[in-house]
Specification:
By secondary structure, this protein is an all-alpha fold. It has a domain of about 150 residues. It is about 75% helix and about 0% strand. It has eleven helices and two strands; from the N terminus they run H-H-H-E-H-H-H-E-H-H-H-H-H. A two-stranded parallel sheet has the order 1-2.
Length: about 270
């Protein structure tokens, strides 16, 4: 392919990805009432699964502090167009989440012709792994980070002020607690590609392991505004496990690279 053919191929893939997002948006918009009641505002209901699981665990262990309950919040609307525009925003975000596997698949189809056989074998499962990690990350943010954070922030009062919030504020925090985690969970994939091009090595990752623990704990503290150590560990431990998985991935990449170099020397 020449340069213009590559541009045409890229345009074709982008159009397909955009169509997938639009289809997801339309489906979400049509189901707006149900989704807002059962997905967006689910953390405000006392029967949300995270609250039930944590309270049951707290009862069995005798650690009453682990039981978090749905905050009592009154949702307000202070802008006439806010419900409509937030409905559109939510539909767009959900459209992207729904279309992520297809978007990654289109990206893979675009870069696939430029890969050699060895690179093709190494990148096998790329679409499935990237899509799964992103969706797991979003789910982790939704079921773990968001409930703890919203329960803390909505229940926090100072000078007797608290208890009410706007739709815009609530959705902003929900987005902040979920979507970024989808990107964070791509850490093993990022480490894989950095290892492939030689920017990081297993030795480098192991050398800075202790530093990464500190960084992840700080990050967990920022992500979860709740001051209790349990919620921070619930965030920090999975992030650290992702880092350890990244080390294993990097070691595997290095072994294959050394084996390939050895075979080339023999030949």
């Amino acid at each position: 392919m020449n340069f213009f053919e590559h541009l045409d191929e890229l345009r074709s893939r982008l159009i397909r990805a955009i169509i997938a997002v639009v289809v997801g948006m339309i489906g979400t918009f049509v189901s707006g009432d149900w989704l807002f009641s059962n997905v967006v505002f689910a953390q405000l209901k006392p029967d949300f699964v995270t609250y039930r699981v944590m309270c049951a665990f707290a009862e069995k262990t005798g650690l009453a502090g682990l039981c978090i309950k749905a905050p009592k919040v009154e949702m307000m609307n202070i802008d006439m167009g806010e419900p409509f525009f937030k409905h559109m925003q939510f539909s767009f975000i959900m459209g992207i989440i729904i279309a992520i596997p297809y978007i990654i698949y289109q990206l893979w189809l675009f870069i696939k012709p430029g890969l050699m056989d060895v690179e093709m074998k190494a990148a096998r499962g790329f679409v499935f792994i990237c899509s799964s990690l992103f969706l797991f990350g979003v789910a982790f943010g939704y079921f773990v980070i968001a409930p703890f954070s919203i329960a803390f922030l909505a229940g926090y009062t100072i000078g007797g002020v608290g208890g009410n919030t706007t739709l815009s504020s609530y959705m902003g925090y929900m987005t902040m607690f979920t979507l970024p985690m989808g990107i964070v969970f791509e850490l093993p994939v990022i480490i894989y590609f950095l290892s492939r091009i030689g920017i990081v090595t297993p030795r480098f990752l192991k050398q800075y392991r202790k530093h990464m623990v500190v960084v992840l704990l700080i990050l967990a503290g920022i992500i979860t505004p709740s001051p209790d150590i349990v919620s921070q560990l619930l965030v920090g431990v999975p992030l650290y496990l992702l880092y350890e998985i990244g080390i294993i991935v990097s070691e595997k990449v290095q072994r294959k690279k050394l084996l390939r170099e050895k075979n080339q020397m023999v030949q």
